[in-house]
Amino acid sequence: MKPVEALQAEGWRAALELGFAADDERTRLAHRRHNGPLLVQRPFFPEDAKLCQMVIVHPPGGIAGGDELSLDIVAGPGAWAQLTTPGAGKWYRGFGRDARQSVRISVGDGGLCEWLPQENIIFDGAFPHMSLEVEISRHGVFCGWDFTCLGRPRSGEPFASGTLRQFTAIRQDGKAVFREQGCIEAGDASRPAPALLAGHCAYGSMVVVGMEAGDDVVAAARDAIGEEVNAGVTRIGTVLIARWVGDNVEAGRTLFTRLWSVLRPWYAGRDAVAPRIWAT
Predict the structure, then answer these.
(1) How far apart are CA 27 and CA 29, in angstroms?
(2) What is the DSSP string of 212-274?
(3) Region of poorest pLDDT, from 49-58, 184-193, 208-217
(4) Helices marked H in 114-232 — which ranges?
(5) DSSP letters for 45-82
(6) In contact, 19 and 29? CB cutoff 8 Å
């Protein structure tokens, strides 16, 4: 049997490829390939045949130092796909080693991809690298969100050591429309600054790209946020983005779920139907 140190040094390597294609008014899973512990359940059609829902499962249940996860998702022309996860992503203590997750999404003309994972919990001592790269055709639409909780506040465990790196890049019709990157070091004295996390331990972002948001859409989105002082909505060209910071990631998820229910009739022409997995 290998010593623990050797097992820790190896880490998991996992990759998942999903390709969706449209046949008339139905979306089907046309391509699926995986390597390592990164899987999907069978396709679901909770609304109708137009939208194919997939639940991405990582059987180990957490990501440790040395692990590398890679997801490649293609929603072809006219295909509508919704992807989520069964629970929070847990990023464990890395013992000085990085852990990586790379997500690449491509959306064709008339296609739609909703990337709606549950939150990431960054344990003390973790060194995560998370990247999201999205390529949208001229007439494609993407909606995605992410939530992050630094440490485990309910367990009295702050994010006291480690480094979190996040990168997001979205291109539409070959042009960059949204790009950001961030680095949060546990010991950074600037974290309490109002322009950063203002002393909070959780935050989230939501973007919708591919549709021109009129003043009525922006007003409705801001009404959905209501009196929440730690959240806001901004429109930049074909990008509508919402931000939130707080101390309870469930509150942020509830807020963005409400916002999603307001925005979905605009960008998808249908009401929001929460995946059943979120209630389990």
Answers:
(1) 7
(2) ---HHHHHHHHHHHTT-TTEEEEEETTEEEEEEEES-HHHHHHHHHHHHHHHHHHHTSS----
(3) 184-193
(4) 215-225
(5) -SS-TTEEEEEEE-TT-SB-TT-EEEEEEEE-TT-EEE
(6) yes
Q: Kindly tell me the number of DSSP H helices and DSSP E strands found in the chain.
A: 3, 17
Burial class from Cβ neighbours inside 10 Å (0-12, 13-18, 19+) for residue 187 reads: exposed
Please report the DSSP string for 4-27 in residue order: HHHHHHH--EEEEEEEEEEETTEE
Residues 4-51 pLDDT 10s: 344 445 788 999 999 999 998 899 999 999 999 999 989 999 999 999
Give the phi and the psi of residue 275 in degrees, each rounded to 5: -55, 140
Chain Cα centroid distance, residue 218: 22
The vertex-165 CA angle with 147 and 211, nearest 5°, equals 50
Q: How many Cβ atoms from other residues are within 10 Å of residue 77's Cβ?
A: 14
**Residue found under tokens 């006291």:** 160
